[in-house]
Amino acid sequence: MKTSIMPSVAAQxxxxxxxxxxxxxxxxNELAGKLMEGGLIPQxxxxxxxxxxxxxxxxxxxxxxxxxxxxxxxxxxxxxxxKAQVQEKATSAASQQVGSSQAAxxxxxxxxxxx
Length: 115
Known about the structure:
Blueprint: H1 5-11, H2 29-35, E1 43-50, E2 53-60, H3 65-114
Antiparallel strand pairs: 1-2
Helix pairs in contact: 1-3
């Protein structure tokens, strides 16, 4: 995967929006042990930050270019969906605050008018 698939994925722009690194299992045995699930290689491990913390996803074994592009793209699609949800919540909260402020102003004006 390292010499055939990943260069093709990179050439297609599939790695443009991610941080990517190779881990040499022979030279970086301790790090590889922490990252890998079992001893199977190659493994493509993706870390994705979520509201519940960091989640890991992985592809194990030989993969096609399209499988890797789809795998990496799933993080981007998930990130876009999360950003949209955050924006929707912020817009809803702002609308509620504006509505509450307007209601308070109407109530205040009504109290002042009856005073």
